[in-house]
Amino acid sequence: MAQKRGLLLVMTGASGVGKGTIRQELEKIEDYHYSISWTTRESRPGEEHGVHYFFKTRDEFESEIHSGLGFLEHAEFVGNYYGTPRAAVEEQLQMGRNVLLEIEVQGAMQVKQAMPEAILIFIMPPSLTELKNRLVGRATESLEKIEKRLAKARSEILMAHEFKYCVLNDDVSRAVEDIRAIIRAERLSALRLTEEELEVIVQQ
Protein backbone atom coordinates (compact mmCIF):
# COMPACT_ATOMS: atom_id res chain seq x y z
CA MET A 1 0.00 0.00 0.00
CA ALA A 2 1.32 3.46 -0.93
CA GLN A 3 2.68 5.66 1.84
CA LYS A 4 0.01 8.10 3.02
CA ARG A 5 1.07 11.73 2.85
CA GLY A 6 1.81 13.38 6.19
CA LEU A 7 -0.21 16.20 7.74
CA LEU A 8 0.94 19.79 7.26
CA LEU A 9 0.21 21.62 10.53
CA VAL A 10 0.53 25.41 10.56
CA MET A 11 0.59 26.96 14.03
CA THR A 12 0.34 30.72 14.11
CA GLY A 13 -0.75 33.62 16.29
CA ALA A 14 0.44 36.97 17.57
CA SER A 15 4.03 37.46 18.70
CA GLY A 16 4.36 36.51 22.38
CA VAL A 17 1.29 34.27 22.45
CA GLY A 18 3.39 31.22 23.34
CA LYS A 19 3.77 29.37 20.04
CA GLY A 20 7.35 28.36 20.80
CA THR A 21 6.53 27.07 24.28
CA ILE A 22 3.62 25.02 22.96
CA ARG A 23 5.82 23.54 20.21
CA GLN A 24 8.54 22.57 22.70
CA GLU A 25 6.00 20.74 24.87
CA LEU A 26 4.30 19.15 21.87
CA GLU A 27 7.52 17.72 20.47
CA LYS A 28 8.06 15.78 23.72
CA ILE A 29 4.99 13.64 22.97
CA GLU A 30 4.33 13.89 19.21
CA ASP A 31 6.57 12.74 16.37
CA TYR A 32 6.74 15.35 13.61
CA HIS A 33 9.24 17.26 11.49
CA TYR A 34 9.66 20.86 12.64
CA SER A 35 10.45 23.09 9.69
CA ILE A 36 13.07 25.66 10.72
CA SER A 37 12.39 29.07 9.22
CA TRP A 38 14.80 31.61 7.82
CA THR A 39 14.74 35.09 9.37
CA THR A 40 16.64 38.35 9.08
CA ARG A 41 15.99 39.40 12.68
CA GLU A 42 18.77 39.32 15.26
CA SER A 43 19.03 36.18 17.37
CA ARG A 44 17.77 36.42 20.96
CA PRO A 45 19.71 35.14 23.98
CA GLY A 46 19.79 31.34 23.92
CA GLU A 47 18.79 31.00 20.26
CA GLU A 48 21.02 28.95 17.95
CA HIS A 49 21.48 29.15 14.19
CA GLY A 50 19.97 26.05 12.57
CA VAL A 51 18.05 25.12 15.71
CA HIS A 52 15.60 27.95 16.34
CA TYR A 53 16.02 29.76 13.01
CA PHE A 54 18.44 30.06 10.16
CA PHE A 55 19.61 33.64 10.74
CA LYS A 56 20.28 35.29 7.38
CA THR A 57 21.20 38.73 6.14
CA ARG A 58 18.60 40.78 4.30
CA ASP A 59 20.59 40.40 1.06
CA GLU A 60 20.70 36.61 1.44
CA PHE A 61 16.97 36.45 2.07
CA GLU A 62 16.01 38.72 -0.81
CA SER A 63 18.25 36.76 -3.17
CA GLU A 64 16.33 33.61 -2.22
CA ILE A 65 13.00 35.38 -2.76
CA HIS A 66 13.96 36.49 -6.26
CA SER A 67 15.17 33.01 -7.19
CA GLY A 68 11.53 31.88 -6.98
CA LEU A 69 12.58 28.48 -5.65
CA GLY A 70 13.32 28.68 -1.98
CA PHE A 71 10.19 29.36 0.08
CA LEU A 72 6.79 27.84 0.63
CA GLU A 73 5.92 31.20 2.16
CA HIS A 74 7.70 34.33 3.24
CA ALA A 75 6.62 37.51 4.98
CA GLU A 76 8.02 40.75 6.33
CA PHE A 77 6.98 41.45 9.93
CA VAL A 78 8.02 44.47 12.04
CA GLY A 79 10.93 45.15 9.68
CA ASN A 80 12.23 41.57 9.45
CA TYR A 81 11.76 38.78 6.94
CA TYR A 82 10.61 35.26 7.87
CA GLY A 83 10.31 32.34 5.45
CA THR A 84 9.75 28.58 5.24
CA PRO A 85 12.05 26.54 2.96
CA ARG A 86 9.88 24.59 0.48
CA ALA A 87 11.98 21.52 -0.33
CA ALA A 88 12.36 20.12 3.20
CA VAL A 89 8.61 20.38 3.87
CA GLU A 90 7.64 18.51 0.69
CA GLU A 91 10.23 15.81 1.30
CA GLN A 92 8.91 15.03 4.78
CA LEU A 93 5.24 15.06 3.71
CA GLN A 94 5.97 12.63 0.88
CA MET A 95 7.67 10.31 3.38
CA GLY A 96 4.42 10.24 5.36
CA ARG A 97 5.71 12.31 8.26
CA ASN A 98 3.72 15.14 9.81
CA VAL A 99 5.28 18.60 9.43
CA LEU A 100 4.75 21.51 11.80
CA LEU A 101 5.27 25.12 10.75
CA GLU A 102 5.40 27.77 13.47
CA ILE A 103 5.06 30.98 11.49
CA GLU A 104 3.61 34.49 11.46
CA VAL A 105 -0.01 35.08 10.44
CA GLN A 106 0.86 36.69 7.10
CA GLY A 107 2.95 33.65 6.17
CA ALA A 108 0.20 31.26 7.27
CA MET A 109 -2.19 32.95 4.84
CA GLN A 110 0.29 32.30 2.03
CA VAL A 111 0.53 28.62 2.97
CA LYS A 112 -3.29 28.42 2.98
CA GLN A 113 -3.28 29.62 -0.63
CA ALA A 114 -0.32 27.54 -1.79
CA MET A 115 -1.29 24.29 -0.02
CA PRO A 116 -5.03 23.98 0.68
CA GLU A 117 -4.37 20.72 2.57
CA ALA A 118 -2.62 22.70 5.34
CA ILE A 119 -4.28 22.54 8.77
CA LEU A 120 -4.19 26.08 10.15
CA ILE A 121 -4.23 26.46 13.94
CA PHE A 122 -4.51 29.94 15.48
CA ILE A 123 -3.12 30.29 19.01
CA MET A 124 -5.24 32.82 20.90
CA PRO A 125 -4.05 34.83 23.95
CA PRO A 126 -6.42 35.17 26.92
CA SER A 127 -6.46 38.95 26.30
CA LEU A 128 -4.39 41.75 24.77
CA THR A 129 -3.45 42.88 28.28
CA GLU A 130 -2.00 39.45 29.06
CA LEU A 131 -0.19 39.44 25.72
CA LYS A 132 1.38 42.82 26.54
CA ASN A 133 2.51 41.50 29.92
CA ARG A 134 4.20 38.54 28.23
CA LEU A 135 5.99 40.75 25.71
CA VAL A 136 7.18 43.18 28.37
CA GLY A 137 8.28 40.31 30.59
CA ARG A 138 10.33 38.85 27.75
CA ALA A 139 12.48 42.03 27.88
CA THR A 140 13.90 41.57 24.39
CA GLU A 141 12.46 44.65 22.66
CA SER A 142 11.79 48.35 23.20
CA LEU A 143 8.37 49.54 24.34
CA GLU A 144 7.91 51.18 20.94
CA LYS A 145 8.39 47.86 19.15
CA ILE A 146 6.12 46.10 21.64
CA GLU A 147 3.35 48.62 20.91
CA LYS A 148 3.74 47.89 17.19
CA ARG A 149 3.44 44.18 17.89
CA LEU A 150 0.29 44.75 19.97
CA ALA A 151 -1.33 46.79 17.20
CA LYS A 152 -0.53 43.99 14.78
CA ALA A 153 -1.83 41.40 17.25
CA ARG A 154 -5.21 43.12 17.47
CA SER A 155 -5.73 42.94 13.71
CA GLU A 156 -4.54 39.31 13.64
CA ILE A 157 -6.93 38.24 16.40
CA LEU A 158 -9.80 39.70 14.38
CA MET A 159 -8.73 37.36 11.52
CA ALA A 160 -9.11 34.21 13.63
CA HIS A 161 -12.12 33.00 11.63
CA GLU A 162 -9.77 32.50 8.64
CA PHE A 163 -8.26 29.47 10.39
CA LYS A 164 -9.59 25.95 10.74
CA TYR A 165 -8.93 25.75 14.48
CA CYS A 166 -8.47 28.21 17.32
CA VAL A 167 -6.66 27.13 20.50
CA LEU A 168 -6.73 29.35 23.60
CA ASN A 169 -3.35 29.47 25.35
CA ASP A 170 -4.28 30.29 28.92
CA ASP A 171 -2.70 27.01 30.06
CA VAL A 172 0.13 25.43 28.05
CA SER A 173 -0.70 21.83 28.96
CA ARG A 174 -4.32 22.27 27.91
CA ALA A 175 -3.30 23.99 24.66
CA VAL A 176 -0.96 21.09 23.84
CA GLU A 177 -3.73 18.55 24.47
CA ASP A 178 -6.09 20.54 22.25
CA ILE A 179 -3.56 20.41 19.40
CA ARG A 180 -3.05 16.67 19.93
CA ALA A 181 -6.83 16.26 19.64
CA ILE A 182 -6.73 18.17 16.35
CA ILE A 183 -3.99 15.86 15.03
CA ARG A 184 -5.97 12.75 16.01
CA ALA A 185 -9.12 14.09 14.34
CA GLU A 186 -7.28 15.01 11.14
CA ARG A 187 -5.67 11.57 10.91
CA LEU A 188 -9.17 10.08 10.99
CA SER A 189 -10.58 12.42 8.34
CA ALA A 190 -12.45 10.52 5.63
CA LEU A 191 -10.86 12.88 3.10
CA ARG A 192 -7.53 11.13 3.76
CA LEU A 193 -8.87 7.72 2.74
CA THR A 194 -7.43 6.54 -0.57
CA GLU A 195 -9.28 4.52 -3.20
CA GLU A 196 -6.76 1.73 -2.57
CA GLU A 197 -7.66 1.57 1.13
CA LEU A 198 -11.38 1.46 0.37
CA GLU A 199 -10.90 -1.32 -2.20
CA VAL A 200 -8.98 -3.43 0.32
CA ILE A 201 -11.83 -3.11 2.83
CA VAL A 202 -14.67 -4.00 0.44
CA GLN A 203 -12.80 -6.97 -1.02
CA GLN A 204 -12.18 -8.66 2.32
Automatic annotation (TrEMBL):
Domain spans labelled Guanylate kinase-like: 6-184
InterPro entries: GK/Ca_channel_bsu, Guanylate_kin-like_dom, Guanylate_kinase, Guanylate_kinase_CS, P-loop_NTPase
Primary subcellular site in the record, as a coarse category: cytoplasm
EC class (word): transferase
Organism: Deinococcus cellulosilyticus (strain DSM 18568 / NBRC 106333 / KACC 11606 / 5516J-15)
Gene it is expressed from: gmk
Residues annotated to bind ATP: G13, A14, S15, G16, V17, G18, K19, G20
Gene Ontology, cellular component aspect: cytosol
UniProt key word Transferase: yes
Keyword Calcium on entry: no
Family stated for the protein in its record: Belongs to the guanylate kinase family.
Protein's cellular compartments: Cytoplasm
Entries under Pfam families matching the protein: Guanylate_kin (PF00625)
Highest taxon of source: Bacteria
EC number per UniProt: 2.7.4.8
Catalytic activity: GMP + ATP = GDP + ADP
Keywords: ATP-binding, Cytoplasm, Kinase, Nucleotide-binding, Transferase
Record protein name field: Guanylate kinase
One Gene Ontology MF term: GMP kinase activity
Function: Essential for recycling GMP and indirectly, cGMP.
